[in-house]
Amino acid sequence: MQEDTTPGGALDRVLTVEVMRVTERAAVAAARLRGRGDERAADQAAVDAMRRELNRLRIEGIVVIGEGERDEAPMLYIGEAVGTGGQRVDIALDPLEGTTLCAKDMPNSLATLALASGGALLNAPDVYMEKIAIGPGYPDGVVDLDMPAAEAIRRLAEAKGVSAGEITACVLDRPRHAELIKAIRETGAAIRLIGDGDVAGVIHTTDPIETGIDIYIGTGGAPEGVLAAAALRCIGGQMQGRLILKTDEHKARAERMGITDFDKIYTHEEMASGDVYFSATGVTDGNLLQGVRFYPGYITTETIVMRSLHGTVRTIKARHTNFDKFNLS
Predict the structure, then answer these.
(1) In sequence order, what DSSP letters do the residues of 275-323 get, joined into one string?
(2) How confident is the model at residue 144 (pLDDT cuts 50, 70, 90)?
(3) pTM for the model
(4) pLDDT tens digit string along 171-193?
(5) What sign does the CA torsion over 2, 78, 124, 101 have?
(6) 320 contacts: CB under 8 Å, gap ≥ 6
(7) pLDDT by residue (tens digit) across 210-232?
(8) Which CATH number applies to 128-271?
(9) Homologous superfamily of domain range 15-121+276-326
């Protein structure tokens, strides 16, 4: 039977396992450098491992969201072709989401990958993106990117049936967010400040009972925004994003990628459409996943792997005894 290769077509189900292996390998490579204070070395190790595994897959893959210049490491670049040939797919990736977190052995560093049928992922330049995200179970339009933050908090609290003081927002700890943080706190809501890792921050909104996070607000990387949107397509929730294209150079790069409406607000369905796989493996311990563990004779990993077509979310704890697969020599 011939595979459906049209945008939005169904993906080969075997890829469920394959995408998990890719993030496992990247996570283990990065975890060997946990706490060493060398962000570039950890990122490079994850990039090399992820590229190696992607090039073993029977896919015709194109990286549409890749490593950004800001990480100053040889990247899996936008437009790079990977795989041995087969079904055409779009790939969004961050081999080491939270490079600083890994270098300092802090929580919530992940290896992440999203894979979708060809043409289904937003091809966005490596710029910043305004984002707002909440978990599943709310009516459409409860929050909106153009709302003042205080209004978004109040409307979410009303929809949840609680006071604003019982809402917790996740925000990247950056100077640019000073006014945003002030506005949120004035509502009585709590804030979970994170130093890095906003893909995990968005995903945390999908399980507030476990993570304590109800809403993600703020500006972060556009590549991370597309990855987070891919996860929400699988696990549920709402997200909006808008690219920040302040310079002529940014706008020219966006135009080369087919983006002409520079003020457009994208929903998560527009950033990641069709059949989507998402995989994340913990590098360091976090709210979402346990980090890599090294034992005499074996390694353990914990991975969350999702598929939008069936709405399946699997958390897989694995024990690995074949060290050759990880190139640990």
Answers:
(1) SEEEEEEESS--SS-PPPEEETTEEEEEEEEEETTTTEEEEEEEEE--G
(2) very high
(3) 0.89
(4) 999 999 999 999 999 999 999 99
(5) positive
(6) 24, 28, 298, 299, 300, 301, 326
(7) 899 999 999 999 989 999 999 99
(8) 3.40.190.90
(9) Fructose-1,6-Bisphosphatase, subunit A, domain 1 (3.30.540.10)
